[in-house]
Amino acid sequence: MTKTLPDLVPDAELNLPRERERTLPNGLTVIAIRRSAVPLVEVRLRIPFGRAPLAPATLLSQALFTGTSAMNSIDIAAELQAVGGGLSAGLDPDRLLISGNALADGLDRTLELLASVLTDATYPVEEVSTERDRLVDHIQVALSQPAHLARVALLKRMYGTHPYAVQTPEPDEIRALSPEPLRDLHAARVRPDGAVLVLVGDIDPDQAIDTAEKILGGWSGSAADGSLPPTPALETGPLLLVDRPGSVQSSLRLALPALTRTDPDYAPLYLANLVFGGYFSSRWTENIREDKGYTYGSYSSIDHYVAGSALVAAAEVATEVTGPSLLETVYELGRIASLPPGEEELEQARRYALGTLRLGMSTQAGLAALAGMYAGFGLRLDHLREYSAALSAATREEVAAAAAKYLAPSRAVTVVLGDAEKIESQLSALTVVERSAA
Amino acid sequence: MTSPSAPVATTGYPWPIETTQLANGLRVVVSEDRTAPVVCVNLWYDVGSRHEPPGQTGFAHLFEHLMFEGSQHVKKTEHMKLVQGNGGSLNATTNPDRTNYFETMPSEHLELALWLEADRMGGLVPALTQETLDNQREVVKNERRQRYENVPYGDAWLRLLPLLYPEGHPYHHSTIGSMEDLNSAALDTFKAFHQQYYAPNNAVLTVVGDTTAAEVFALAEKYFGAIATVPDIPAAPDGSLPGPADKAVREEVTAKVPAPRIYLSHRTYPFGTAGYDAVTVLSTILGNGRGSRLYQRLADGARIAQPDYIGAYGVDLAHAPAPLIITATAKDGVDLQTLEDGLAEVVQSLIDEPVTADELNRAKALLTTSWWRGVSTVYGRADLLGRYATQFGDPATAADRLPKWLAVTAEDVTEAAKHVLRPESRVTLTYVPGEPS
């Protein structure tokens, strides 16, 4: 065996795929990319949905595909399955996202079914009632999952009275809904103006855009203004402890301020987060997993919404080491905020960031997700050129400055969910703790 | 409405495949694809939890963790840093059958990935320390808590296996293992484990993506060629079984769960057989999506099951009859018995009511999409070729799976249902909400 590490070679240039784009007269923007690896096509449609009332919007996303004047829900599902595909809708605080895929030669049929739902969804009473029960069941199951409960508590703490603070409706709000508010909301907001359709796969991009124009050109109307106020600054305060009796692990969550993707300091902040906790080779993982074995995994990432961005760090740690885990977490945040990163660890994070961009773009689904996500923020894939140049150029000083400003533990909002009886005294030794009322 | 026509495919693998074998027994598989500048390196070791003797459950998986903790020329945490620090992503998984390791890299870093894999195949033992073992034991115990213990219904798989497979069968115990066994894991056992199973003649190296067979073969020789063959690697205990179980068994669990849930399970056929292909189509018809029988009859029709938690799927195990798992969760106000009766009735319908052409064609279209999604990434392709080379001796046979699914007839599905779905061979696992006793 050859004993020495092979010479490390420099990274190759980023190659961007060609994006074809057309904004139709109805205001829908269609972006198509050819990636012919397998005979499939990925479909993503983003419709701006900011400020839509949460409960009806959530139920609408679940009931959108349950009926048109010509088809019931089983017909729609069966027709989509017949071309090997499926479409489903999901909601985030900014938009309604319809996503799915199909065999490439089923693109026309898939878009026809999509168009019929967009222009002619009927929200039948029976089907809405089924979806209502289903959503209530789903929310109730989520309420038993520690990761969901921790997220609910964290969002409330981060966003206060901003619409982002609550992203899951109460079961009772859903139970009270009839089809009428869904139909009204569909009429007001499921409109092409400002929406973006992304098609990626074994397709001819120009032909795919023509097809989309032919099939979706009849979808019309303009939507109400959905713009949201900017997110409020995080308000620090006592650690919020949420009790989950009997839990064998504690869910540790910290939120910190962050920057939008187009901010000149974004690349340095992104790298600072990687060094801290944003990938497996980070300091935080090395400390609480690889050195101490407190957790199976920890991870921090920057979440982007249209009205603002935030950094969230998350780990599930064994109950008996909840305090020590928080101690190490605060230590690692303090270290990255106070001292510049090492040359080598910065280089490593930089190359990871650049390499994962390339890996992410190497599949149809990855490319579709990236193009669609960027489009939702008014960006195109060519932003990657600028962004990768910024990642390449960021200096230790810039990364240290971003970390000092955004990763300082004094700015963190902290929530811990776990067996309060066993962990409260551990946490109180480190910081002021407030029990959640819930 | 258009009536679905059956999709056709003559091959599920339209890319080149080239193979060689080094003198030490390492099989090397290469599949070139220049469409994106990435490459995946994948190693299948023919060792999984089915090889574990009593008292050592969870060892194959804990060992997988140790493979990331340094080797002869790679310090602790350096493996991960070298891969990620060169833009790559990596992971490994263990299941009852086998252990796989893989990294997807920008293609210019292929050589680095091969060097790292060779170093831990040939030189792990000198780097194994008690400290590393103790650390990763805690990590794995946290993995067990996070995945199985701290989530409602999370332990269903752990409970199903001993009900499906008799004591002493290689699939009787779960891959994650028991806390007791993990606590007693000794360093020497792991050293011996590596020396026994992590041998070139017990592995398949697959490389897919932006490279050539000639380049990979040369690099494989350079880095893996000097690793010694291990003679007489012991086989796992025999997994053959006379047929479906002859006695129904059930287990009833009271736990902090939001609603009653049922898992029905049967032993079917080993993955890779014609019988299992029929079971794959059968489970798609039964439980995949809104067009499926379970959805149509229990969620949409009788409205006794929660639509989001209906499912039927086979677990693709190759060394013994693989399990088919069918699950449903009661809607609010529906009791367990009602749900169980409803579920049993739909399962019985696969025997009594012939599968329609529409059902069959929809299932095949769904399987076709899921197949192509699986091979849409270099990772998916490398893992597939590694599997077929390891389990069936020839990576090229991977191309046959999709055409074989598409050749399954309605009669095949009914025959499979008659054979595997009989109530007298059924495992039933139920959860009801309440304080655990």
Helix content of chain A: 40-55%
The number of distinct helices of chain B, counting runs of at least 4 residues, comes to 15
Largest interface: A-B, 81 and 91 residues
Number of domains of chain A: 2
Number of strands of chain B: 11
Please report which band the strand proportion of chain A falls in: under 5%, 5-15%, 15-25%, 25-35%, 35-45% or over 45%. Answer: 15-25%
Report strand order across the widest sheet of chain B: 1-2-6-3-5-4
Name the CATH architecture of the largest domain in chain A: 2-Layer Sandwich
Alpha-carbon distance between the two ends of chain B:
53 Å
Count of separate DSSP helical elements of chain A: 16
Q: Averaging pLDDT over every residue of chain B, what do you get?
A: 93
Structural class, judged by helices and strands of chain B?
Answer: alpha+beta
| Protein structure class of chain A | alpha+beta
Mean pLDDT of chain A: 94
Describe the largest sheet of chain B. 6 strands, mixed
Order of helices and strands of chain A: EEEHHEEHHHHHEHEEHHEEHHHHHEHE
CATH topology of the largest domain in chain A: Cytochrome Bc1 Complex, Chain A, domain 1
User: Which outline of chain A best applies?
Assistant: globular
Number of domains of chain B: 2
Helix content of chain B: 40-55%
Task: Walk me through this protein's architecture.
The complex is a heterodimer of chains A (438) and B (437). Chain A is an alpha+beta fold. Chain A has helices at residues 54-63, 73-82, 107-120, 125-142, 146-159, 171-175, 179-189, 205-216, 266-278, 283-291, 322-338, 343-360, 364-376, 383-393, 396-406, 420-428, and strands at 20-23, 29-34, 40-48, 86-91, 95-103, 196-201, 239-243, 249-257, 295-305, 308-318, 413-418, 433-435. Chain A has a six-stranded mixed β-sheet, sandwiched between helices. A six-stranded mixed β-sheet of chain A has the order 9-10-8-11-7-12, with helices on both faces. In chain A, 50% of the residues are buried. Chain B has two domains: 18-224, Cytochrome Bc1 Complex, Chain A, domain 1, CATH 3.30.830; 249-433, Metalloenzyme, LuxS/M16 peptidase-like (Cytochrome Bc1 Complex, Chain A, domain 1, 2-Layer Sandwich), CATH 3.30.830. Chain B has helices at 59-66, 78-84, 110-122, 130-149, 156-164, 179-183, 187-197, 213-224, 274-287, 293-301, 336-352, 357-374, 378-392, 401-406, 410-420, and strands spanning 18-21, 27-32, 38-45, 89-94, 99-106, 203-209, 249-255, 261-267, 311-314, 323-329, 427-433. In chain B, the strands form two sheets. In chain B, strands 1-2-6-3-5-4 form a six-stranded mixed β-sheet, with helices on both faces. The longest helix of chain B has 20 residues, at 130-149. The radius of gyration of chain B is 23 Å and the shape is globular. The termini of chain B are far apart. At the A-B interface, α2, β5, α4, α10 and β10 of A face α2, β5, α3, α4 and α8 of B.
